[in-house]
Amino acid sequence: MILVTGGSGFVGSHLIQSLLEDREKVVNIDIKCPSHDRREFLRWDIVNPDPPVSSIEETYHLAAIPWTRVKNESDWFAETQQAIRVNALGTYNILQLESEAFIFSSTANVYGNGRQFKEDSPKRISSPYGYSKAIAEGMIELSGEKYTIFRFGTVIGPRGRCFPNRLVWCAIHDEPVKLFNNGDTYRDLVDVQDIVSALKVGFHLDNGVYNVSSGTEISGLELAK
Predict the structure, then answer these.
(1) Can you give the pTM of this predicted structure?
(2) How far apart are CA 213 and CA 147, in angstroms?
(3) Residue 71 has pLDDT above 60, yes or no
(4) 10-51 pLDDT, tens per residue?
(5) Which range has the worst mean pLDDT, 83-92, 109-118, 182-191?
(6) Which residues contact 175 (CB under 8 A, 6 or more apart)?
């Protein structure tokens, strides 16, 4: 049996669709019911102990609190607490399942602000989201389990909610585009189907951290134009 946490989300829903097409037996754990497919769905918050499943062959751990922009110091503490609770403590709870392979979706956000990252680039964490993912990575590496950690670039595609998807929405509704950091933020855009392809080979990779990206970059201003 294959377990996907966060299978009702953007990447998770595409992954489950692909696994079902391969005729795999998949269980989706999420706090919200999926709109795309209700087969083998278990509603469960990963911050709670005692996961409701066992005998897992592969675990794809995608459930997480996403990155959001912090506006002031009080929000920073509140967001940090929530991110660590879900992304770090939740990962600890899922690790207790002791599956044959643990495949984790991390983020290039752990490198901080900058460009052209490699797996051995130093971490320069600039957000509570990146910090919580870095904690989760450390726990996975120390767990003694077989694992693969994928750090994603900016994932785009159907059902996504990132900046490129927002641009399309603005164009359709004739709304002005709001640029983060005056459009000077660079993104490495990678299609969700390429992310799914990477996740599905995670079981066959040696323990380690792997960046998944297109190898190109574009600024928010260039993308908007």
Answers:
(1) 0.90
(2) 19
(3) no
(4) 999 999 999 999 989 999 999 987 766 656 888 899 999 888
(5) 109-118
(6) 169
Residue 184 has pLDDT above 60, yes or no: yes
Dump the DSSP string for the chain.
-EEEETTTSHHHHHHHHHHHHTT--EEEEESS--SS--TTEEE--TTSSS-S----SEEEE---PPP----SHHHHHHHHHHHIIIIIIHHHHHHTT--SEEEEEEEGGGG-S-SS--TTSPP---SHHHHHHHHHHHHHHHS-S-EEEEEE-EEESTT--SHHHHHHHHHHHT-PPPPGGGGT-EE-EEEHHHHHHHHHHGGGSPSEEEEE--S--EEHHHHH-
Q: How far is 208 from 182, CA to CA, in rounded Å?
A: 35
Query: Taking Cα atoms as reference points, which of 163, 168, 167, 209 lies closest to residue 187?
Result: 163
- Joined together, the tokens standing for residue 107 give 């983020």
